[in-house]
Design a protein that fits this description.
The complex is a heterodimer of chains A (about 110) and B (about 110).
Chain A (H helix, E strand, L loop, with lengths): L3 E4 L2 E4 L5 E7 L5 E8 L3 E10 L2 E4 L6 E3 L9 E3 L8 E8 L8 E2 L3 E5 L1
Parallel strand pairs in A: 2-11
Antiparallel strand pairs in A: 1-3, 3-8, 4-5, 4-9, 5-6, 7-8, 9-10, 9-11
Chain B lengths: L3 E3 L4 E4 L4 E7 L6 E7 L6 E7 L2 E5 L2 E6 L4 E6 L8 E8 L8 E2 L3 E6 L1
Parallel strand pairs in B: 2-11
Antiparallel strand pairs in B: 1-3, 3-8, 4-5, 4-9, 6-7, 7-8, 9-10, 9-11
Classes of the chains: A mainly beta (about 110), B mainly beta (about 110).
């Protein structure tokens, strides 16, 4: 099992550019989520999904879109990047209902200039 | 004010010391309490979790929850250099949601 994988590992964008952060898991987990981690702020939930075709907003959803067409993949789209979106982004997954242990990917470090 | 507050440290202790990490929270609806460990440039991984109030022990680690004081703690006994990491507390309100609310994380360094 590869677990939760994220690509790319690093990315530099210019203000206004768009991009998609990829997340995939091979554990057949129904629940997937995206967090951002900023110094002094901990991890904050951006969007989450309880299964294919179902997504919902978390704590800080503005400027991000998600979709869930398959169980395995949960991409995060930045529509028009802003410097405030400079952060480390983590994708996580768990079986539905077993939410205490969420399995995190290695993260994507994003810098927006 | 954040729902979950955690002293960011950094905390530096000698090898073998007992470490106490703490979080306070304001939402009395939290029922599930977790501690995640995050090594540098890695994703967090679950260390242990408790439900409602009480203690839970796993090897050198003990988690305590005091819901009346809205205070949770993680104790590490006989700390090792390999325990050097950032420790994040996390909480959620019910069994039906996977939405975790994290503290800021405490960075711990255990010196040999």
């Amino acid at each position: 099992n590869a677990g939760v994988t994220q690509t790319p590992k690093f990315q530099v964008l210019k203000t206004g550019q768009s991009m998609t952060l990829q997340c995939a898991q091979d554990m057949n987990h129904e629940y997937m989520s995206w967090y951002r981690q900023d110094p002094g702020m901990g991890l904050r939930l951006i969007h989450y999904s309880v299964g294919a075709g179902i997504t919902d907003q978390g704590e800080v959803p503005n400027g991000y879109n998600v979709s869930r067409s398959t169980t395995e993949d949960f991409p995060l789209r930045l529509l028009s990047a802003a410097p405030s979106q400079t952060s480390v982004y983590f994708c996580a997954s768990s079986p539905r209902g077993a939410y205490n242990e969420q399995f995190f990917g290695p993260g994507t470090r994003l810098t927006v200039l | 004010q954040k729902e979950v507050e955690q002293d960011p440290g950094p905390l530096s202790v000698p090898e073998g010391a007992i470490v106490s990490l703490n979080c306070t929270y304001s939402n009395s609806a939290f029922q599930y309490f977790m501690w995640y460990r995050q090594y540098s440039r890695k994703g967090p991984e679950l260390l242990m979790y408790t439900y409602s109030s009480g203690n839970k022990e796993d090897g050198r680690f003990t988690a305590q929850v005091d819901k009346s004081s809205k205070y949770i703690s993680l104790f590490i006994r006989d700390s090792q250099p390999s325990d050097s990491a950032t420790y994040l507390c996390a909480m959620r309100v019910s069994s039906n949601t996977g939405k975790l609310i994290f503290g800021q994380g405490t960075t711990l360094q255990v010196k040999p």
